[in-house]
Write a structure and sequence with these properties.
Keywords: Iron, Metal-binding. Belongs to the pirin family. Its cofactor is Fe cation. This is Pirin family protein. GO terms for molecular function: metal ion binding. It is globular and about 45 Å long. It contains 1 helix and 22 strands. With 241 residues, it is mostly beta strands. Helix content is 2%, strand content 52%. The two termini are 27 Å apart.
Length: 241
Amino acid sequence: MPAAAQIHRSADRAVTTTSWLRSRHSFSFGDHYDPQNTHHGVLLVNNDDIVEPGGGFDTHPHRDMEILTWVLQGALRHQDSTGNRGVIYPGLAQRMSAGSGILHSEMNDSASEPVHFVQMWVIPDTSGLDPGYQQHEIPDTVLAGGLTTIASGIPGHDAAIFLHNRGAALHAARLAPGAVVDLPTAPYLHLFVPRGRVTLDGVGELGTGDAVRFADADAPRLTARESAEVLVWEMHQKLGG
């Protein structure tokens, strides 16, 4: 394994469980605080959430955070204090910029089926921005074609969604068995496998819920061992510099 790659297995994640929620945390979150596991690059949160029918996060505040939501199964209903509302489903990427302050709620939109989604938080370059919201649908054919840039603030990137961080981008892919993709070259890279199994050159096999954190990644190659979905953060800076 490359010295700059750290594997974080699914079973080692902290878990928050309530009557309506099962949330697995890749980093410190809420009551689960580990001073050795607070972030990677500019990525502070990578929560893998399942919300039961009738459940959800009631109205709550955020500030100075870029919040990306990617639904894997089901539908998530969003409403915020700037007047934005809608339903997020698989393939519809959403970014909420908390900026100077925003209130929002996230509820399962189904009365019978759970919703499964990944929510990721990164720090914006500038604090106190006007709160904002953006969403964009990514066709299955595009996601199946290889690593696709979902959100980015990196100059020159062609991304579906703009990110208020000039050194960060989120990529995604839905891979058929045997498909091969090269991950980006970047000082900081975070690979998360929300479902399926893949093999990463120099690292080995990764399963559902596993993650790898790279420093100075040089286009590592990934092969799907079965149908899989991957989320990749490319980051050219870290917190504080």
